[in-house]
Structures are given as structure tokens and as C-alpha cells.
Design brief:
2 domains; 9 helices; single chain; three-stranded antiparallel sheet; alpha/beta; three-stranded mixed sheet
Length: 299
């Protein structure tokens, strides 16, 4: 089956299948639903939800991409079952409240009732239409605390984006450090500042988005900067580059604060020929100039 793109040693959906026209991809979804993916039970019988399961991480990711082709967003959960004293870990992907119910009708249009997730003034919901609009002072929020991944179309995973036109109170590290440093106020770092982040300039991110959109790749790809630095180093760099008189102060580390965030961009390099080009100091220079200009404007 290798000539069809199937690998006996890795349970995956071949890229050519994920890229099929929806009128053909629906048959694959229906076949999976009728086979390994379907679960019996009252919820299924009543047409309340579809459930697809797999023990393979890669196959789970491929199913997410397949559903995204139809504009559907499954909930994903990891579970454990037992058989003859052995543990079996598996993934379950659930599609609730889809209409029409049958996957064989999805290519003509399918709707899903999805409760939007909100984070302060941000609302997370499926993207239904993209239009070019006149620029505004609003930030491009590809990354926010606790929800730093933005999944677009067939799979961009964007991480810790920064650049001009960021909102000073959006809660992320760079806007917070800039707001404090430009006002000569103490720059606050959580914990001892040893936790690391990898910051990607927005222009690099956009190149990655365009590159993926124009490619034949139908799988998730990390778009980010793998150059890692500690938050203390970032705070000190911001103070130095702004010429601020601020001191760095330390506050209690939140329980859920990740210790390391560093994307692996191997797939972006191999599949898209993409990697970040903007040096951190150059990106910060542009970001600082924008933030300084905003502060200089009369209220």
C-alpha cells in the first residue's frame, strides 16, 4: 500500500486523501465513522453527536484536519480503557450538533453549533469568511495567555507573535514589559524569570501563513521562532532598548505558567521552505517605535 501513501508502520491519513475534493473526502469520513471510529450508545442513536476514536496520535491530528476541511471543530479528549488487565490509551474526537447529520451530505454545506470560547475581550469561534479591511489600531491576536495557538485553515500553529500595533494591556509579556518600561515603572517578571519563550515577529508569521495557503500541504505546521530566551532576559532587553529607568521586580509564579515554550519548525522548513528572518532586536525596535508613537499621541 506504500504506493498509495499508506504506511503499515504508521497509522496516518495520507496527504492526498486529506486534500481530496470534499465530495470525495466525505466518503472517507463515512467509512471511518462506520468502522473503527464509531461508538454505540444512546447519544449516537439519537443523533446527538459523532464520535471517532484512535489510539494513534498522528491519526488523531489527521482527523482534526479532515474535519476542518468541512469547517468542523471536534472536541478532543484522551481516555484510558482496560482489557485483560492491560491499559489502553486512546483519543476520542467528538462532533456535537452537526447538521446535516450524515457525513455524506457535508460537502453541500454543514453547520455546527459551537459555543464560542471567550478570553477577556477575545472571542474564539470558527472562521467563516475572511475579508480585507482597512487597518485599525487593533492587535493581531494570534497568541494570548493560555491560548497561544492559533489554528488557521489546514493547520498553522502560531506561537508568541509580537510586533507593532499590540495592545498594551493584552496580558502578554512583551506588551506588558513595554508598557511598564516606557513609563519608567517596575517591570514585573513572574517567578525567577527562568521560564523560556520563543518570540516570532508578525511579518515572519504572515509569510508562513501565506506560504502554507499557497502550498499543497494539508497537515498542521508550526510557524514560530525556535530561538529560545528566558523572560528575565526579555525584560532586561526591553529595559535596555527603551532606555528606561525601570527596575525588574519579581512576583509569584502562577501555578499553570509553562516552563518552556519552543516550537519545532522542522516541518515548516522541510515542507514550506520557511523559517523566521527578522532578528529579535530588529523586531523589538519596530515594536518599541510603534508603542512610543502611541504614547506620544494626545489622549
Amino acid at each position: 500500500m506504500d504506493y498509495l501513501g499508506f504506511d503499515e508502520n504508521r497509522k496516518r491519513i495520507p496527504g492526498w486523501v486529506l486534500g481530496l475534493p470534499l465530495a470525495r473526502l466525505k466518503w472517507f469520513i463515512e467509512g471511518y465513522r462506520e468502522g473503527d471510529g464509531v461508538h454505540s450508545g444512546k447519544k449516537l442513536e439519537e443523533g446527538v453527536r459523532h464520535e471517532f476514536s484512535t489510539v494513534y496520535d498522528d491519526l488523531k491530528d489527521d482527523l482534526i484536519v479532515a474535519f476542518a476541511r468541512f469547517g468542523l471543530a471536534p472536541s478532543v479528549g484522551g481516555y484510558e480503557s482496560g482489557f485483560k488487565g492491560k491499559r489502553c490509551l486512546f483519543w476520542r474526537l467528538t462532533l456535537p450538533s452537526v447538521s446535516p447529520w450524515s457525513p455524506l451530505a457535508w460537502d453541500a454545506g454543514v453547520e455546527q453549533k459551537l459555543q464560542a470560547r471567550t478570553t477577556k475581550d477575545l472571542v474564539w469561534a470558527p472562521v467563516k469568511k475572511i475579508e480585507e479591511i482597512e487597518a485599525t489600531p487593533l492587535v493581531y491576536d494570534f497568541s494570548v495567555p493560555g491560548l497561544e495557538n492559533f489554528w488557521a485553515g489546514t493547520g498553522v500553529l502560531a506561537r508568541n507573535t509580537y510586533g507593532p500595533r499590540m495592545r498594551p494591556h493584552d496580558g502578554r509579556a512583551i506588551p506588558t514589559f513595554l508598557r511598564q518600561a516606557l513609563a519608567d515603572k517596575p517591570v514585573t517578571v513572574f517567578g525567577d524569570g527562568s521560564q523560556t519563550r520563543s518570540f516570532c515577529f508578525v511579518a515572519d508569521l504572515i509569510r508562513g501563513l501565506v506560504g502554507l495557503a499557497e502550498s499543497e500541504v494539508h497537515e498542521p505546521v508550526n510557524i514560530g521562532n525556535p530561538n529560545e530566551m528566558t523572560l528575565l532576559e526579555m525584560a532586561e532587553t526591553v529595559v535596555e532598548m527603551t532606555g528606561s529607568r525601570s527596575e525588574v521586580v519579581f512576583e509569584a509564579l502562577p501555578i499553570d505558567d509553562p516552563k518552556i515554550r519552543q516550537p519545532d519548525i522542522t516541518r515548516a522548513r522541510d515542507l514550506l521552505g520557511w523559517e523566521p528572518e527578522i532578528d529579535l532586536r530588529e523586531g523589538l525596535k519596530q515594536t518599541i517605535e510603534d508603542a512610543t508613537a502611541k504614547l506620544a499621541k494626545p489622549a
